[in-house]
Amino acid sequence: MATLRPLEKDEMAPEARAVIDEIKAARGVDDVNNFWKALAHQPANLRRIWDGLKQVMSPGELDPVVKEMLYIAVSAANNCDYCVHSHTASARAKGMTPGQYAELLAIVAMASQTNALANALKVPVDEEFLVGGPRSGRPEPAARSD
Amino acid sequence: MATLRPLEKDEMAPEARAVIDEIKAARGVDDVNNFWKALAHQPANLRRIWDGLKQVMSPGELDPVVKEMLYIAVSAANNCDYCVHSHTASARAKGMTPGQYAELLAIVAMASQTNALANALKVPVDEEFLVGGPRSGRPEPAARSD
Amino acid sequence: MATLRPLEKDEMAPEARAVIDEIKAARGVDDVNNFWKALAHQPANLRRIWDGLKQVMSPGELDPVVKEMLYIAVSAANNCDYCVHSHTASARAKGMTPGQYAELLAIVAMASQTNALANALKVPVDEEFLVGGPRSGRPEPAARSD
Amino acid sequence: MATLRPLEKDEMAPEARAVIDEIKAARGVDDVNNFWKALAHQPANLRRIWDGLKQVMSPGELDPVVKEMLYIAVSAANNCDYCVHSHTASARAKGMTPGQYAELLAIVAMASQTNALANALKVPVDEEFLVGGPRSGRPEPAARSD
Amino acid sequence: MATLRPLEKDEMAPEARAVIDEIKAARGVDDVNNFWKALAHQPANLRRIWDGLKQVMSPGELDPVVKEMLYIAVSAANNCDYCVHSHTASARAKGMTPGQYAELLAIVAMASQTNALANALKVPVDEEFLVGGPRSGRPEPAARSD
Amino acid sequence: MATLRPLEKDEMAPEARAVIDEIKAARGVDDVNNFWKALAHQPANLRRIWDGLKQVMSPGELDPVVKEMLYIAVSAANNCDYCVHSHTASARAKGMTPGQYAELLAIVAMASQTNALANALKVPVDEEFLVGGPRSGRPEPAARSD
Questions:
Q1: Is some CB atom of chain B closer than 8 A to the CB atom of D144?
Q2: Which residue of chain E is at minimal alpha-carbon distance from B74?
Q3: Could you identify which of C102, D89, F39, F110 might form a hypothetical disulfide with F46, taking C-beta atoms 3.0 to 4.6 angstroms apart as the criterion?
Q4: What is the model's pLDDT at position E130?
Q5: Which CATH superfamily groups domain D1-56?
Q6: ipTM
Q7: Is A85 in Cβ contact with D45 (below 8 Å)?
């Protein structure tokens, strides 16, 4: 499979090789996974995606395991085969317990169920859930959230 | 909108009214939101969904705010208008900070981006991400995770 | 809303008006719904979609109500606001009972739930579910199914 | 593949084994398919999903073959590889004819096409399709549909 | 895999064989790809899909490579494994350059990212983006666009 | 609607205001659309998304109108209400003709249809569509595509 073959390091353009070296250093690994090797055909995409991912997944208010679990949840909902595998492995490496994984899957399943129901019923959104917006006079929780 | 009008309590069948009363008691609220009032047309669905949701969202190894954030992540990926609004409101009510919300949205956005890339590239899954399965001899993290 | 304003009949090109007249005649109605009026900007699309829909929804081995219910199921899963509303109305007009609708929604919800779980778990497909395909020697149910 | 290896019976916790035994008895089979064996790592999820599925797919107003066809329609729209395979096999086992399958696929395809069009055009929903809701005075089809 | 085994020519009904011969002639190839061989079980679907595809992908105002790139974009967003592979191959055969492919993937990724953000934020659509529709007095770009 | 109210300029943090000023300057407009005003609550997200979008949509090998049309295609497939409206408006402003728009919608519709069919049939990918990957000896089109 794959529409772009994962590249080996000596096949990459210098700009791509530089990003791959950054990923290895940041993660303390000897080799990167196939996603990066496939993206290495396109140095500008490789650079932008890595820089963005590094920023988004860096330490913040959320626990690193929680960040990986959120990544799994989105990847499962988007049905990304590769991402589900890679981020489930990452979450486990960062300490996700079997019990946390069971709770995560329970929520992914339940949310998909109620999402489908609400989308099929087209339930009107309750007024009290709306914040801001041109037709609401309610205060929003905070003017700044970053 | 809506394909089933949200019902008022005196229009509900007794089996539906009983579930609605349980929801009010469990949440300590005077009234339930439209999702439940629309589902009240179908008492068996209302009962099954409420019982499942109550079980899935009950205290466990994950923090209640994290549970709501996972729910938002799935609902955003599935693009459920109603669920995004209701669970963002719930997460805030349970203490999600503006900074946590910013990190959540960053992950939802970034994951959607790499999901799309991996799905467009059809990157082959690395061997080290696979556990179990008929073609893998690798040990899995745990035989039981619930 | 809308990226193409629903057209009134006197604004349509003759090729579009001809299709609109066919829809009215086929359905025995005085006016068509907004979907067709918006598509009327693009006579070739309008013609192709109407001809296809007429063929697909015409009497066959499946009951007309079942056909509409399948349409609702797909539209809910694809979260098409317009289509959920229009096909729920059609199904009701063709005789879908409240009990059938409750069972439909239960299946839409349950399938979305197990879909999400199987996609998150990446469960390997059992050999006995596979028919045909280059790696299977199993007979398929029938050489022709139309 | 798989993020949780399908378990064999002697690897399961007693609560999981009990559910697996119920599934075998209910279906009259010697072994269950991989979905259940993978879920068996998480007894609470296994129990909730099986109980829900059993209830939803039990005899009702809809024919069992129709129920499986609705399940296929949702699974195809959600692109669940595993579920498409397992429920297509189930529908055939319950009597879905090749002609019915052809009509099902025709509807799945056509609905996906008009869903995409309506979502791209953002066609405003016609007033006559709306029932209930705060901005509609129209009667809804029935106060109770379960 | 596959729920319908790709058929060889001598297994097809005459109506299916006729369509397959048309595809070969139109494309100047000796054999068709698996999609058509699987659809050949269902001659009516095969006919309708081929006739539609031929019309949609025929020369028009858009360049043939652009048409294939749009097809890839939709297929990636819908996560169709088969279609991503087949249309990426077609786009390359019609002249898509590596640089164009890199730009295509960048847009698929970026759009998926901002789609997810807008869906999570539920940003109200700006008045100036709306054309037509019952609540807008703005002129639309053109009464006819086909 | 909205889970974060679009901010006015005097409500924004300085880092957010700086990005908003860049967007206005780059686009030569007096005000930005709601997407940016809602993101302005989260300056880090606002900065990352704007920088990425500016890079991805800048002049390259693809025509600016084609870039916007690809954006529409993905947004329609992902069913992003806001993005469909904003990028359809952008594509028109950059010169998309009614005829090009009709062809775009035809492809979005047709691709969604064949995507659904291939996903429901689970057609095995033809060997000739595969490039690279561990199980293929075929050369890929180019070692570098950026």
A1: yes
A2: E120
A3: F39
A4: 82
A5: AhpD-like (1.20.1290.10)
A6: 0.90
A7: no
